[in-house]
Amino acid sequence: MTPTAAPQVREMTLADVERVSEIRVRGWQWAFRGLMPQPYLDALSVAEDAERRRTGFGQAGPGVVNLVAERAGTVVGWVAIGPYRDGEVRTGDAELYALYVAVEHIGTGVGGALLGEAARRAEALGHPAMRLWVLRDNVAARRFYARAGLHADGAEEPFEVAGVAVPEVRHTGRLPLKGPVPAAV
Asked: What is the pTM of this model?
C-alpha cells in the first residue's frame, strides 16, 4: 500500500480497543506464522483479546502510554510503552511493550511513526534508554528495531507457546534513539 499521508499518532481511547485487538491478533497470526504453532495462532480471538483489553483499559499504572496511528480516520497501528520490567521491579529505563501495524500498512511508515513517538514520549518521561523483548527468530522485527538504534544486548529469555520454545532476545538503545526511525513496518 502506498501511503497518501504520514500517519497521525494520538493517545489510544477506549473506543480504539476493538481495532487495536484486531491489529494485534492479525499481527501475531501474520508475523509469527512458522515461528509458533499454527493451531495456537489460528485459535487467537479478537473478541477475547478486546475483552481483556477493555477490562484493563485505564488501569495500566503510572508511566504507561498507549498510542495509536491513524490514516484517513482509521486506526492502523498501536504502540505501548512504560517502565521497564525486570521481573516485578520497575527500573529507570522505558520498555516498548508492544508495537503492531495492520498487515496491509506494513512498510508504509506506520511502525516508524509509532516507534518515533514512543521514543520521544519515553525520553520526555525521563527514561535514559528503551528496551524491548522480541522473538529471537523474528528477523524482520529485529532488523527494524536495529535500524532505529535498538540492538540485541545479549540477554535472552525462554518463552513457550503451546509447548514450543520461542525464545526472546532483548534489544536496548539509549534515548534519544541514534538510528533513523525506519519507515518500514
From this structure: 0.92
